[in-house]
Amino acid sequence: SKSKSYGLELLVEIQEDLAKEAFGDVLVAGYGLGIIQKLLIENPKVNSVTTVEKTMEVIKACTHTFGVLYGQVICMDFYDFIPSIAKVSHIESYDCVIGYIWPEISSKYVLEYIRFKNHAQILLSNHGKILAWGSEFYEYILDKQKALI
């Protein structure tokens, strides 16, 4: 239906915007459909793409449906991922960490955003950047909360 195709177009557009901002070694929290990973690999500013996906079912479904996985995919919970401990990646820190793991942009996910951001900061290189779906909204909410304290 028209609304479903519009929804997919919007989803791709959001991921295109995030992928354009990325550079260097990129870590993605959650594989999804692999759209952002494909876009990141096509970005000449990106050196490598590593995704941490916690469910093997997602990895198997994408492999079966699309016949390919983009970049390195590590089956592990993002919040447990620390490269020096996990020993699953040669990269110790990342230039960009991308989060797209909440189902919608809503104030009810602000704590999940904070949790993501806090863990992402541990994984960033000194000049690194956190990119997240809805980050402008979540940062606005957090700034408003700080102003009230």
Automatic annotation (TrEMBL):
Protein name stated in the entry: Class I SAM-dependent methyltransferase
The species this protein was found in: marine sediment metagenome
Gene3D superfamilies: Vaccinia Virus protein VP39 (3.40.50.150)
SUPFAM superfamilies, per the entry: S-adenosyl-L-methionine-dependent methyltransferases (SSF53335)
